[in-house]
Design a protein that fits this description.
Layout (H helix, E strand, L loop, with lengths): L1 E5 L4 H13 L4 E9 L5 H18 L4 E8 L9 H14 L4 E5 L9 H20 L9 E3 L7 H7 L2 H5 L8 E3 L2 E3 L5 H8 L1 H13 L1
Parallel strand pairs: 1-2, 1-4, 2-3, 4-5
Antiparallel strand pairs: 6-7
Helix pairs in contact: 1-5, 3-4, 5-8
The structure holds zinc ion.
The site of zinc ion has 10 residues, from helix 7.
C-alpha cells in the first residue's frame, strides 16, 4: 500500500518525508502544491521542493513525485493552506493506486493543531465520499502525522544538515538578484529561528574542520 506524502518544502514536511524514507520501506508518492497567492512564496517554495526531492532521491530511495498549483493571486485574502491540502490530497489519493494513508508534517506545537487537523480530515472525508460513491479509491484512507510529537528543534535535528539548509520556511520572501531571501519577520521565519540552536550544534563538527 502506498503513502501519499504532502510536501510544502518547509522544515516540518521535509522532516516527515525524511522519516518516512529512512524509517519505512513503503512506497511513497510525494506531492507539492504550488500555493500561488498574494504572499508571493510559490516560486521560492517550489525551488526548495525540487532541491529537496533531488537530495532525497540521491541519498535515500526512489519515489514518485508530482506537483500541482492553486493560483489565487488576485485575491486580497490569504487562503487557508490546510483546506487546499485536504482538497488536493483527495484528488492525488484517487490518482495513486493503493493509497491508504496521507502523511502531513503537522506538529502538535502548531497553534490550534488539533482543531485544524480535525477540520482538514472532515473536508477530505466529504470529498473522498464522492469518489467512493463512484467506487474509486481504497475503502479507507487514514491521515498520519509522522513528526507530530516533535518540537521544532527536534524536527530540525532530524534532518541531515545539507537537507535542512535547502528547506524553505518564509511565507513572504524577498526577491533578490540571485533568487530569494527569507524576510526574517513572518511567523514561519520566527518559528524557524526557534530551531536555530540545534542547527548550530549539529553544524559545529563540520565548521570546526
Ligand atoms: Zn519570512
Amino acid at each position: 500500500m502506498t503513502i501519499l506524502a504532502m510536501l510544502s518544502g518547509g522544515l516540518d514536511s521535509t522532516a516527515m518525508l525524511w522519516k518516512l524514507l529512512t524509517g519505512t520501506g513503503e512506497p511513497l508518492r510525494v506531492h507539492h502544491i504550488r500555493m500561488d497567492n498574494r504572499e508571493g512564496r510559490a516560486d521560492a517554495e517550489q525551488a526548495a521542493v525540487e532541491r529537496i526531492v533531488a537530495y532525497c532521491r540521491a541519498h535515500c530511495r526512489p519515489f514518485r513525485y508530482t506537483e500541482s498549483g492553486l493560483e489565487l493571486t488576485q485575491l486580497e485574502a490569504i487562503p487557508i493552506d490546510y483546506m487546499a491540502i485536504a482538497y488536493v490530497a483527495c484528488q492525488v489519493a484517487i490518482d495513486t493506486p493503493g493509497c491508504n494513508r496521507i502523511a502531513v508534517g503537522t506538529l502538535a506545537r502548531d497553534t490550534d493543531e488539533a482543531n485544524r487537523s480535525a477540520r482538514q480530515r472532515r473536508i477530505f472525508d466529504v470529498m473522498y465520499e464522492c469518489y467512493r460513491a463512484r467506487k474509486l479509491g481504497e475503502p479507507e484512507v487514514i491521515w498520519i502525522y509522522p513528526v507530530h510529537a516533535l518540537s521544532k528543534t527536534e524536527v530540525a535535528a532530524l534532518l541531515p544538515p545539507a537537507l535542512r539548509e535547502i528547506t524553505w520556511s518564509c511565507r513572504t520572501p524577498v526577491r533578490t538578484a540571485s533568487g530569494f531571501r527569507p524576510c526574517g519577520r513572518c511567523k514561519a521565519c520566527r518559528a524557524r529561528a526557534e530551531a536555530a540552536p540545534a542547527r548550530e550544534i549539529s553544524a559545529s563538527p563540520d565548521a570546526s574542520g
